Amino acid sequence: MTEEDVTRKRVREILTEFKDHQGALLIALLHIQYELGYTPEFAVEDASAILGFSQPEVWGVLSFYSDFKIGKQGDHFIDICVDGPCHIGGAPGVRRALEEAALDESNKFEVRAISCPGICAKAPVVAVNMRYHGDMTPDKALELAAKLD
Ligand code: FES
Q1: Which tens digits make up the pLDDT trace of 61-92?
Q2: Does residue 44 fall inside a structural domain?
Q3: Which residue from 9, 27, 107, 123 could staple onto 89, CB 3.0 to 4.6 Å apart?
């Protein structure tokens, strides 16, 4: 069984788990996103088949919400909040340091800009593979990035 087979099996399990829930499509897609750190493209076909929505409806949800990242791009994801409090708290410097490190470590991790996850008291905030870390500085962010396999 390939890695993609294992991932697809898990995606189908999650979709089936939420099949009879109200708001199943959004909830199931969010669970997939948070568990994998991205949403595989085949989730569109599987969500359509299992939850009974058309593929354009599934794409509509995925493209409407900025939390969804379609397809796996790096081995790891470091998301940085770029909204007001984080921006003022130093997010641009953290982002610049991470983006420079990402270039040196090609494909080890991908840096993505996100909107406020609601923990502004800890600004600036980054999430490493969906785990949030607050009071971030460029040095602390680089330490987190260096720990990635
Ligand atoms: S603005 Fe960054 S966590 Fe709220």
Answers
A1: 998 887 788 887 677 889 999 999 999 999 99
A2: yes
A3: 123
